[in-house]
Amino acid sequence: MKCRLKSLLIKLGIIFWALQVLQSHRLSFSQELKKAFEWEVKNVVDATSDIAGNIYVSDEQGNLSKFSKDGQNLLSYSGNTISPISSVDVSHTSKVFGFYKDNQAYLILDRFLSLIHEAALNTSLIGYVTETAYAADNKLWIFDQSDLSIKKMDLINDILVTSISVSLIISDADWDIRQIEEYQNRIYIYNSNKEVYILDNFGNFIKKLPIRPDCNFGFNDENMVFIQGAGIFKSHLYSDALQQIGVIKNTNSILKVISTNNFIYLISKNKITAYR
Q: Which stretch of DSSP H or E encloses residue 272?
């Protein structure tokens, strides 16, 4: 009986090893993505896309530009604040939300990039905000570095709706949040340790994803699209099924991945490159 069990375990080990080898072989020989087109930008800080596939880019001088899917500059906004717009969000509405980390202020633009509203965050409610995500209900998710918490603010009524201590999500107190995104009623948090955590729309912890993106990620339908090593992957949001889309060279300078218009847009500091 013991011999049979030992033999079975050995066979299972060999099968597992073979599957790992095949998976590694398949990934290492994935097709290199083809560059479709590319255009120059300057001093990019953040980028996003709307449901029509337009690309929005903020820079270090406080400008925000709207590009067509093939890189034509459609509109630009230059406000009176000469400070980087550290995060841009236009995923839920026709409005464009921008956050100035240096000034702890925000702006809201219409789809023509005309200013609707601009204001400072209420410092009596929060400490120092480093990342934001505009919510589908027109409220604002923030990471408050002063007390290591994820908070949701009602900007219209100027009240705090939710506050969740990061220590309840992960024991590591040294959090450096690089990205917060609300997508399909979930909150995705990405930190400098290349970890991705998911909360529900009430701020309750759901899980940590088994991936380690090298830069800020994007979404497409029910998939997260991200770079890890030389590979571009998509991870299904609900099954965690992982698929490698392809490989590219020189991914070290990529700030963010955007997937829309059947293209993969790789956002760098001074250029945007579209692959398919």
A: strand 271-275
Burial class (CB in 10 A: 0-12, 13-18, 19+), 244: middle
Identify the CA nearest to 219 among candidates 190, 184, 252.
184
C-alpha–C-alpha distance, residues 226 and 228, integer Å: 7
Phi, psi of 198 (to 5 degrees): -120, 135
Whole-number pLDDT of residue 94:
81
SS3 assignment, position 187: strand
Distance (Å, rounded) from C-alpha 232 to C-alpha 199?
A: 24
Backbone angles phi, psi at 2, to 5 degrees: -65, -40
How far apart CA 12 and CA 18 sit, in angstroms, is 10
Which regions of 139-241 does DSSP assign to beta strands (E)?
A: 140-144, 149-154, 159-165, 177-183, 186-191, 196-200, 205-208, 218-220, 223-228, 231-236
List the end-to-end C-alpha distance of the chain, in Å, as a whole number: 55
DSSP state letter for 32: B
Enter the CATH code of domain 31-275. Answer: 2.120.10.30
Domain boundaries, the chain: 1-30, 31-275
Q: pTM above the 0.70 mark?
A: yes
Q: Mention every residue, 6+ apart, whose C-beta is less than 8 A from residue 120.
A: 103, 104, 105
Q: Take residue 125 and report the two structure tokens written for it.
A: 């409610």
Q: How many whole angstroms separate alpha carbon 200 and alpha carbon 211?
A: 19
Tens of pLDDT, residue by residue over 198-243, are: 999 988 999 999 999 999 999 999 999 999 999 999 999 999 899 9
- The single-letter DSSP state of residue 166 is G
Q: Which ranges of the chain does DSSP label H, i.e. alpha helix?
A: 2-28
Residue type for position 85:
I
Q: What are the tokens at 97?
A: 């939300």
Rounded-to-integer distance, Cα 267 and Cα 38, Å? 10
